[in-house]
Design a protein that fits this description.
By secondary structure, this protein is of the alpha+beta class. It has two domains: 33 residues; 69 residues, no CATH class. 20% of the residues lie in helices and 30% in strands. The protein is built from one helix and six strands; from the N terminus they run H-E-E-E-E-E-E. The mean pLDDT is 87.
Length: 114
């Protein structure tokens, strides 16, 4: 994959204060874009979700809250990994927490709240 090079607006320097200000802002913008693209984008850079490890309650069927920090009510969760056989299901959801329960005791799982 090729690297982006420095952005050049034009051959000559702008001759007005507005033109100089615009060139400075464009240079700042493209320098930052260059840094992001050349270092690679991570999953978190381009995705509105929360990934966390949770352990369900020691009593099957009791609720466990996940504080997701999304500042919106999530669509749902995806279980990425779990340490034992069993099901995780939604009890309720809000702009601050996603509440789950499990049909087995103390299941540890990595979940993606979306």
């Amino acid at each position: 994959m090729s690297q982006l090079t420095k952005f050049n607006v034009g051959e000559k320097q702008p001759d007005t204060p507005w033109g100089m200000s615009l060139e400075k802002e464009l240079d700042r913008y493209f320098t930052k874009l260059n840094q992001i693209i050349n270092k690679g984008l991570t999953f978190a850079d381009n995705f509105d979700g929360y990934i966390g490890e949770i352990t369900t309650d020691a009593t099957p069927g009791n609720s466990t809250a996940i504080t997701h920090g999304l500042k919106r009510t999530p669509t749902g969760i995806i279980v990425l990994e779990q340490n034992k056989a069993g099901s995780i299901y939604k009890v309720s959801k809000s702009a601050t927490q996603y509440v789950i329960a499990s049909d087995v005791a103390s299941m540890t799982a990595t979940v993606l709240v979306i």
